[in-house]
Design brief:
The complex is a heterodimer of chains A (59) and B (294). Chain A has 59 residues and is mainly alpha-helical. Chain A has one domain. In chain A, 58% of the residues lie in helices and 0% in strands. Chain A contains 3 helices and no strands. The longest helix of chain A has 18 residues. The mean pLDDT of chain A is 77. With 294 residues, chain B is of the alpha/beta class. In chain B, helix 3 links the parallel strand 2 and strand 3. Classes of the chains: A mainly alpha (59), B alpha/beta (294). The interface between A and B is medium-sized, with 21 and 27 residues.
Chain lengths: 59, 294
């Protein structure tokens, strides 16, 4: 994460603009998924089992 | 009120900083579409760093003005830890309310100042499952278990009085029905989440709120028990009097500060309605207002 440390004092509106851009980027990147959903997707046991891998290869 | 609400807000926030002689962090969440999320941890961290502070260079004291109905307890805990990384002393200002995950965040404070008629809430969890019917407060389950127990006791007493045997299956029947309706796995998940929330609350109370109290373990046990098990519902209003009885380091704001902070909330609402702050990230989610005033 890039953080500007006291280079220039941001106004209240500028701070909110900065946050808005960051939140939008994150939202798009994560496809709107919550932290819980992302963790559970990353650790979905079906991804690591033989059965899951085989079925993943099916067209 | 000024024709430029953002200027008015900045003026009031800077005035409060001067009055308290310390920086002020405002965390405002939209009432309906704003909730505490893990993204906020990074946003708050970034704002504190932009202010020129770091873990190695913390503030002597920070005032945090908080307004939220709550959200993710994991995020609430992490936000509290981030705030405490940046300050040696923290005072939370609650002009109107700070519920659930917001209350959890307040547990990292050295002091909580409540505005007139402001309140906190218990930190019980509600989990939304597959269907809206499965949205259950864990406290409701506790009360249902108590209800089942009481039913059994009353029937047993009645049977005894009338000279019959003292055995009835009513308690197990009622509990089976609850498991059928809520789902055994859901129940397990609820109780696991509560253990986690309790763990977070304990950490914050011991490390910050009561770090120097000789009886910190007793205080911690009493508060966690009340916040998770004893209070009757998730929407139970813990006002100044109840917080004080519970043993939280709570104080009523003086009238001038109470009025000033409430006006700030009104301005934040106005700015949200005008679309200046708390803009839509999606149709169902608005970002919070985060700003550090020095």
């Amino acid at each position: 994460m890039e953080i500007e440390v006291k280079k220039e004092k941001l106004s209240t509106i500028e701070t909110q603009e900065l946050l808005f851009k960051k939140y939008l980027e994150d939202y798009k990147m994560r496809h709107g998924k919550s932290f819980e959903e992302l963790v559970s997707m990353a650790n979905d046991p079906r991804k690591f089992t033989k059965k899951g891998k085989k079925s993943g290869k099916k067209p | 009120m000024s024709s430029n609400p953002i200027e008015e807000l900045d003026k009031l926030a800077s005035g409060l900083c001067k009055q308290k002689n310390n920086p002020l962090l405002i965390l405002y969440y939209h009432e309906y579409l704003g909730d505490v999320r893990w993204e906020d941890v990074e946003a708050i961290y970034g704002e504190l760093r932009r202010g020129g502070f770091s873990r190695e260079k913390p503030m002597e004291s920070l005032y945090v003005l908080l307004h939220t109905f709550g959200g993710d307890p994991h995020a609430g805990y992490r936000i509290a830890q981030v705030i405490r990384d940046f300050t040696k002393n923290a005072v939370f200002l609650v002009p109107q309310y700070s519920c659930s995950a917001g209350t959890l965040m307040c547990l990292c404070a050295n002091q909580i100042e409540l505005g007139d008629y402001a309140f906190l809430s218990p930190i019980d969890i509600t989990i939304e499952r597959e269907t809206p019917l499965e949205r259950v407060e864990l406290m409701s389950i506790d009360y249902y278990i108590e209800f089942a127990k009481e039913c059994r006791q009353r029937i047993e007493e009645m049977l005894k009085r009338n000279g019959y045997g003292s055995s009835t299956n009513v308690e197990s029947d009622l509990l089976c029905e609850m498991v059928k309706q809520v789902g055994g796995l859901n129940l397990g998940a609820f109780f696991r989440e509560r253990v986690l929330t309790g763990f977070y609350a304990e950490s914050l109370l011991l490390d910050y709120m009561f770090a120097l109290a000789p009886n910190k373990n007793d205080l911690k046990n009493k508060i966690v028990r009340a916040l998770l098990f004893e209070y009757p519902s998730h929407t139970f209003c813990m006002d100044y009097h109840i917080c004080l009885k519970l043993g939280l380091p709570v104080k009523e704001m003086d009238i001038a500060t109470s009025d000033m902070t409430k006006t700030m909330i009104t301005l934040l609402r106005l700015l949200t309605v005008q679309g200046v702050i708390c803009r839509d990230v999606s149709n169902e989610y608005k970002l919070p207002f985060v700003k550090l005033y020095i």
